[in-house]
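Researcher: Let's try something more involved. This one mixes different molecule types, so please make sure each is placed in the same coordinate frame as the others.
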Amino acid sequence: MSDMKTLLLELHCEEIPARFLKPLTQDFSTAFTKWAEGEKLGYEGITPYYSPRKLSWNISDLPVAQADQTELQVGPPQRMCVDEGGKPTVQGQKFAEKWGVGFETVRFEQPAGKKEPCAVVELTRKGRPTLDLLVEALPRLIAGLHVPKAMRWGNSSFEFVRPVRNVLCLFGKDVVPIEIDGVKATASTWGHRLYHMEHPKPIKVERPKEYVEALKAAGVVVSFSERRRILEGQLNELAAQTGGQVVKDEELLDTLAEIVECPRALRGEFPPEFMELPKEVLVTSLKEHQKSFCIEKTDGTDLLPFFLTVANRDDDPAGFIKAGNEWVLKARLYDARFFFAEDRRTPLQDRLEKLKQLTFHRELGSYLEKTERIQAIATGLAHALRLDFAQADHAARLSKADLMTLMVGEFPELQGVMGGEYLKHEGEPEAVWKAVKEHYHPVSAEDAIPSTPMGGLLAVADKLDTVAGCFAIGQIPSGSKDPLALRRAGIGITRILWEQGWTLSVEALVDLGLKAVANRASKPLPETREALLGFFKDRVAYQLEVAGYAGAVRRSALAIGWSDLVDLKARCEALSAFAEDERFASLAQSAKRIGNILKDEAPADAFEASVLQVTEEKALAEHLGRIEAASDQATLLAALAELAQPLAAFFDAVMVKCEDAALRGARLSLLHRLRKAFMRVADFSLWQ
Amino acid sequence: MHVQELILRLQRYWADRGCLVGQPYDIEKGAGTMNPLTFFGALGSKPWNVAYVEPSRRPSDGRYGDNPFRLYKHHQFQVILKPSPAKVQEMYIESLEALGIDMSKHDLRFEEDNWESPTLGAWGVGWQVVLDGMEISQFTYFQQVAGFDCKPVCAELTYGIERICMFLTGIDNIFDLTWGDVKTDDGVFPISYGEVRHREEFELSAYSFEHANLDLHWMLFSEYEKEGWRLVKEIGHYLSAYEQTLKLSHTFNVLNARGAISTTERPGIIKRVRDLAVACAKGYLEHQEKELINAEGAEKKSKGAEESKEVKG
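Model: All components are placed in one shared frame. Result:
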């Protein structure tokens, strides 16, 4: 097609919250795509742009008009439209009139779904100019955007994310004359505020393809990914100049690229006396209060007394920006140091009483009660895992006390970390302070599990209390509803068990949890136990997926037991390795065949070996002995691998269901015992 | 830049842009928003521009005058523009220039920061205004006050006087700021912020954290509440009832600073303050409506009178 133009739409607003930029541009793109499909308007692609004050879209190669469309209008059956003499009936005439055509253009054919030929008129609908369609549609699409925290302004009742101050809308070189809340679209827009201190007039955009460059000339980099790239380069360079590296934080980098139009990273210093603060405190304080990065030594250990932040302009002509940021940072760190000093005046032990006032959950009581439950679970775990009982109890006792400190009040994300730091300062053993410090981990799929066994134990105890407690009062996650992030907690528990390689069954774990929360339960315990086991089974299945096992391995391994993760892991490992073996396919097939043969049989376990006649079946019986003698998964798997050949030979040579009852019984028992051996590893009937 | 000069310049600037210059309201409060000039001004349809300074008390923020950055009582400069003008951001930026900030040399950002006051049942959306990394103002488009939609919507600008002054002077201890110069026959004596306010910070922090009589405050809380409801319900007076609401709110803050309110109790107590605030707002709106009807009636009457005169004449 020859006549294509590009559509450019920009809503220039007062500063839009960073978190809404991407969703809003995406929502509009989706809505536009859907609308264009409905209007049968093809186009090449949508490129969305956004910056703090702009939401814009470049929609390339949109036809200037809809194609003409033909459509069939079906009327009454032919016999009712035409009389026996071949003349049109009244009904036939009316049908033609209805569509504004003469009767001679009416055709008769049998449309799909009709039993006889009917009157048909083929109409051509003229395609409308795209410009007209856009004028009707764009305001509606914009007003229809879902804005989570919409606002009104001035006298108007129009709702949007922030006041719309300018609308730029071009279709090719033509302005699309739309109006958004009284703001008429033009071919102009505004650049960076600094630029307009010297250029009081708006900037003109002649055609869509000049848009990005025109804005750049006016101080605005309108592409998010470009701003992010620029910033990342600058940050790395500024960090390298100090001999260190940026403390990575992708989320912060995103935010910084979202809050500026003209990105410029800058480096400041802070007084070295603040280096006595724990690294986490500095990193969190700088991030949360000043959206700044820390710089660490290249080995990732200690911090250097520098920070990196971003300005919304390309230079710092008087040094005010650097000085200002340093000044503010000092005030913030002063606060952090005050909290750190103040908090250490009261040992965590002495804060326990106050946890009584802090509600964990209306139905599950205060944090003091939660602490007591964590202690019960932790000591139970220590007993089962043969870890230091007293230490587990002590760490659990102190695990939540930092919630009452000033620092955690200021930075909730430092919970655990501060507890650990303060306990370290109080001279507690490393096992205890580290356990407390790390017990909220893993907080996400990428996050590591606690680095010590005691930390893992405490993390499991804390999460298990939350999960079991919520299940016991009927707060079970369903669908997208999981307000207390129980699934994440469940995954955390599973990962710790899995990665620590603890020989503790999930069933035993669930029972420990249930015992701890029993007195708060409002649902019957057996029902809760059932639900919890189902919940954990799903988490374990997910863990297998994350660990990268193939579907067939997961299914067949899970089917015969999932609660003992060490055993499950060994079986999955063995199966995955074995699945590569060329003998495996034949074995899996034989295993399925055994399943089929035994389907309606109930053979005895024991059989008389002497009854067996054929060489192949005798060999197989001998082999069974070796398999049954295998005491661990590796030996068992090796023996099973060796089985492939004799088993195949057996099926070639032997008819299992023979006439002789004694012989048949022995053969069935032989196969039955073989299946039992398979079942120690996997259910091969699910292997596909 | 002296503290008083900052206030004077802001008053001059906003007066020149069509604002009434208001005065602080003489009852303790946590923020300039609670001044009736804003609380009632933001409600109803009448155009309303006002600017004033408001001493704001936050008992929990008290630091005995030891912390160079935090205060029991700080000063807010508050501007209300109703309806919010189309160029409100530009007007704000020009006000910074009026304070002597050369915007061509600084970095200015508007970062999302929405405002909510559970005790007033009010919320709005807006930004914290960040200059060279430092938050210097709150900028809010009021959406609701006391649960009533703001129609039209007003813009509220709140400048932190002490912060801006520290920033402009580069002095990193509030108490070292200069409040102003005292000139006498004997010479010029610069008076520091500390000289004017340090003792107050010390004593009022001590009062909030240690010496406030809890029984008295609990008693006051319920008495102010009773008095407020009596005024708004039985007498039908919203403004005197609102004064009781302000006292109620401050009493709550003192109790809170003493740690006398548990986390579970807090929402219930906040609701008691809000309920009274909502009743006052309702009283105000009803009163406004009556006045509007009366005014229309009076207009008709006087028109009628003129017409009858004409007939007579």
